[in-house]
Amino acid sequence: MQLSAPIYVLKRRAKLLARDIEIALHKALDKVAIEEGFQSWSHLVSSAANESPARNIMSRLEPGDLALIGARPGHGKTLLGLELAAKASQLHRKGYFFTLDYHERDIADRFSTMGIDPSSITKSMVIDTSDGVSADYVVSRVKAETEPALIVVDYLQFLDQKRTNPSLDDQIKSLQRYVIASGAICVLISQIDRSFDLKGKSMPDISDVRLPNPLDLSGFRKLFFLHDGKIRFDQAA
Questions:
Q1: Which end of the chain is more exposed for a tag (fewer CB within 10 A), N or C?
Q2: Are residues 87 and 175 in the same domain?
Q3: Domain range holding 46?
Q4: Does residue 172 lie in a domain region?
Q5: 168 and 184 share a domain?
Q6: Helices 41-48 & 7-21, crossing angle to 10 degrees?
Q7: Are 219 and 173 a contacting pair, CB within 8 Å?
């Protein structure tokens, strides 16, 4: 069944509805889903799963990949990253989601809006909200496991916040060396510079990645950009 708008737009609609008529968000989500012809929000999400960008991305990921997912705020990049980590088992891997932007309660809320029971997911993947997340931290945490990893880091620019951390360029090179040596897959979520909104382009690209400090983006084998429910794929030369 064709949705009238991308899921992230429908979710926004539900949040406004919940505020306007003063009902719980989950009830507003169900109401929006029913208007779209589904029994509930979870039914809508599961029915749309085959169209999820996550399936597109996972079909392209290979051992040793360092990949980037970029989008402007509100276009679903964090939800997509969570979905990738949650479905890592489909690639016979263990999922890791490292975030400097959200707390565990925020992540549980996001799983709920995806129609996924947070308790069932957190048993099969690692969610790390430590303030100490950096490339070295990620590598040390994952190296202790014997199972191949699919790592998602939320997000690229936050790795550069602490002065005690190596430069962002050094951290990306460290992650690149690790995934190549170990066969892990690492996906970094990235902000897109707000100047993109003024360029009149239909989709962001590598030139729109926000870089507060110098970074050689050629280390990313694969780049995915989201906008208005669409996805663009670029591969390193």
A1: C
A2: yes
A3: 7-50
A4: yes
A5: yes
A6: 170
A7: yes
C-alpha–C-alpha distance, residues 212 and 181, integer Å: 28
Mean pLDDT in consecutive groups of 10 residues from the start of the chain, 237 residues: 74 93 94 94 78 82 96 93 92 94 86 77 86 95 92 94 92 97 97 94 95 92 93 84
Sign of CA dihedral 10, 82, 197, 65: negative
The dihedral formed by the CA atoms of 152, 156, 160 and 161, expressed in degrees to the nearest 10: -80
Is residue 13 located within the same domain as residue 106?
Answer: no
Q: Is residue 35 part of a domain?
A: yes
Contact by Cβ (8 Å): 69, 234: no
User: Are the C-beta atoms of residues 67 and 221 closer than 8 Å to each other?
Assistant: yes
Specify the pTM. Answer: 0.80
Pair of tokens at residue 198? 């003024």
